[in-house]
Amino acid sequence: MSTDDDLDIDLDDLQRRMDGAMASLRQEFLSLRTGRAAASMLDPIHVDAYGSSTPINQLGTVNVPEPRMLTINIWDKSMVGKVEKALRESGLGINPVVDGTIIRLPIPELNEERRTQLTKVAAQYAEHARVAIRNVRRDGMDQIKKAKAAGMSEDDQKVWADEIQELTDASIAGIDKALEAKQAEIMQV
User: Fold this and answer.
1) Residue 141: burial class (beta carbons within 10 Å; 0-12, 13-18, 19+)
2) How confident is the model at residue 2 (pLDDT cuts 50, 70, 90)?
């Protein structure tokens, strides 16, 4: 590799950005309902509480007492109605049952049509992550072009380009593997 620091490509930064795209994908996958209860299903839902948008897990304790049931034990009795309303309007397709300060969320079985829709949504999330990875790759290749203008040798350009491509290939393979696992989980009856 070149000894001039201005000719070096920051692979750590590229790797960190690719890892960020993968972490974002995993977070999006958590929001997909698979027919089994998971506390993470409620992460995207916020409630207008005390004058600000607050995640449900900051208003009560979320538990998974059974594979098809979530419960939320709301700490402040005055928030129960607001949490229930946020759950109904969330688009999760869950019908909350209020019992005092406890809200029960029975998770209905997914039908075949809904499972197929969810696998398509998962595929869209994965494609967005692939695009993000490719954008990071393009930024890395742009760094090589700038270094070429600053005097980087042809051999060094090839080495850097190969390393960036390896990072890209590994990240895309990770996305494909995560998508395959998520789709299998969604289709599991």
Assistant:
1) middle
2) very low
Q: pLDDT digits over 137-174, tens only?
A: 999 999 999 998 888 899 999 999 999 999 999 999 99
Indicate whether 90 and 149 sit together in one domain.
Answer: no
**pLDDT over threshold 90, residue 33:** no
CA distances from 165 to 1, 39, 155, 160 (A): 17, 37, 15, 9
Structural domain boundaries, residue 16? 5-30+111-187
d(CA 116, CA 148): 48
Residue 85's alpha-carbon distances to 56, 75, 107, 143, in angstroms, are: 12, 16, 17, 50
Tell me: do 121 and 177 sit in the same domain: yes
H/E element, 122: helix 112-149
Per-residue pLDDT of 52-85, as tens digits, reads 888 888 999 999 998 889 999 999 999 999 999 9
Q: In this structure, are 154 and 64 located in the same domain?
A: no
Where do we find the tokens 């897990």? Answer: 57
Looking at the structure, tell me whether residues 26 and 116 fall in a common domain. Answer: yes
- Of 106, 128, 143, the last residue of a domain is 106
Question: d(Cα 80, Cα 60) in Å, to the nearest integer?
Answer: 10
**What is residue 100's predicted lDDT score, i.e. its pLDDT?**
92
